[in-house]
């Protein structure tokens, strides 16, 4: 097991700089193309299959459908704005942003 980890580390370390590095506080505005949610000022990079790509969009507002932020790069539904929580009050309805 240790040998396998050492081999994997030896293969990945030389090309570590080739992986994109994302930093918090990026300034891509809404409507800009993105490949990771951390690139967007709103922290939401939403996939848009109709336009063939992903774009920065605002976070969900109160009573809008939402999903909690995942570790994935692109969202299918955006997380809530700051101060709101993404919960479902009814088991059959989708999650929505609420004040708590």
UniProtKB/TrEMBL annotation:
<dbReference type="GO" id="GO:0008047">
    <property type="term" value="F:enzyme activator activity"/>
</dbReference>
<dbReference type="GO" id="GO:0016042">
    <property type="term" value="P:lipid catabolic process"/>
</dbReference>
<keyword id="KW-1015">Disulfide bond</keyword>
<dbReference type="GO" id="GO:0032094">
    <property type="term" value="P:response to food"/>
</dbReference>
<protein>
    <recommendedName>
        <fullName>Colipase-like protein 2</fullName>
    </recommendedName>
</protein>
<keyword id="KW-0964">Secreted</keyword>
<feature type="signal peptide">
    <location>
        <begin position="1"/>
        <end position="17"/>
    </location>
</feature>
<keyword id="KW-0732">Signal</keyword>
<dbReference type="GO" id="GO:0005576">
    <property type="term" value="C:extracellular region"/>
</dbReference>
<dbReference type="InterPro" id="IPR001981">
    <property type="entry name" value="Colipase"/>
</dbReference>
<dbReference type="GO" id="GO:0007586">
    <property type="term" value="P:digestion"/>
</dbReference>
């Amino acid at each position: 097991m240790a040998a396998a980890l050492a081999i994997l580390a030896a293969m990945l370390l030389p090309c570590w700089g080739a992986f994109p590095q994302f930093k918090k506080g990026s300034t891509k505005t809404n409507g800009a193309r993105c490949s990771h949610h951390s690139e967007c000022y709103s922290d939401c990079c939403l996939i848009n299959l109709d336009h063939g790509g992903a774009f920065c969009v605002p976070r969900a507002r109160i009573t809008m459908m939402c999903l909690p932020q995942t570790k994935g790069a692109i969202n299918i539904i955006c997380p809530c704005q700051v101060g709101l929580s993404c919960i479902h009050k009814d088991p059959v309805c989708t999650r929505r942003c609420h004040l708590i």
